[in-house]
Amino acid sequence: MTDDATTRFEVLYRQHFRAVLRYALARLEPESAKDVTAETFLIAWRRLPDVPSDPAPWLFGVTRKVIAGQVRSDTRREALRLRLEVAAGGQASPGDLDQEVSERAAVLTALARLSENDREALRLIAWDGLTSKSAAEVLEVTRLAFGVRLHRARRRFAAALEAAETASRQGPPGRPRHPQPAVPESCSPSPFTRAKEVR
User: Fold this and answer.
1) Is the peptide bond before 189 cis (omega within 30 degrees of 0)?
2) pLDDT tens digits, residue range 7-24?
3) What confidence score (pLDDT) does residue 187 get?
4) pLDDT for the residue numbered 78
């Protein structure tokens, strides 16, 4: 590699490392996400001439392929984080905490009912902050196809969320409601809370 190529790669790494790591963290456990991020930039280094002038969608596309066989259950990971947050306590009143836990549980339940394709479409927009055009590039589909996928994902998420919130309010038959969800997002802001906003 020439000095110009080395300089270009260093700039690429500095500008996009956090975004790629965040993308991986939304889909994998932290250690796996770090490995995937390192692998993504190794590929970028080896294929530097192929990296376009707008590298973010290309990098996300590479990352998506690297983690294809390593995806963990988003619901399990988020459930663990929510339990940890609840255990940590904080300054919230019991009522506030119950409401927050219940809301997050409903969001996680709704997401768990979606297909991986639906979850991926919502995450690319709500978590990764991509435009529809860039998200379409990541998924290697046309912008129109992604728009249709996103619209359907939002509609199905809204329906699943409404059902989950209704079930949460009603609670188990004959028993008082004791929300026992999952927990949080270690990264802020929450992609799942924001997913409600994209409906």
Assistant:
1) yes
2) 999 999 999 999 999 999
3) 41
4) 54
183 forms beta bridges with 82
Q: What dotted CATH number matches 3-66?
A: 1.10.1740
Using an 8 Å Cβ cutoff, are 107 and 189 in contact? no
The residues spanned by each domain of the chain are 3-66, 75-197
Number of residues assigned to the chain:
199
pLDDT in the model for residue 142? 93
Model pLDDT for residues 104-121, shown as the tens digit of each residue = 777 778 888 889 889 888
d(CA 36, CA 40): 6
Helices 132-139, 116-126: inter-axial angle, 10-degree rounding: 140
Cα–Cα distances (Å) from 91 to 38, 83, 86, 96, 179, in that order, read 38, 16, 11, 10, 19
Architecture category of domain 75-197 in CATH: Orthogonal Bundle (1.10)
Q: Is the pTM of this model over 0.85?
A: no
Whether residue 51 contacts residue 12, with contact meaning beta carbons closer than 8 Å, is answered with yes
| CA 118 and chain centroid, separation | 11
* Residue 40, CA distances (Å) to 75, 138, 144 in order: 25, 14, 27
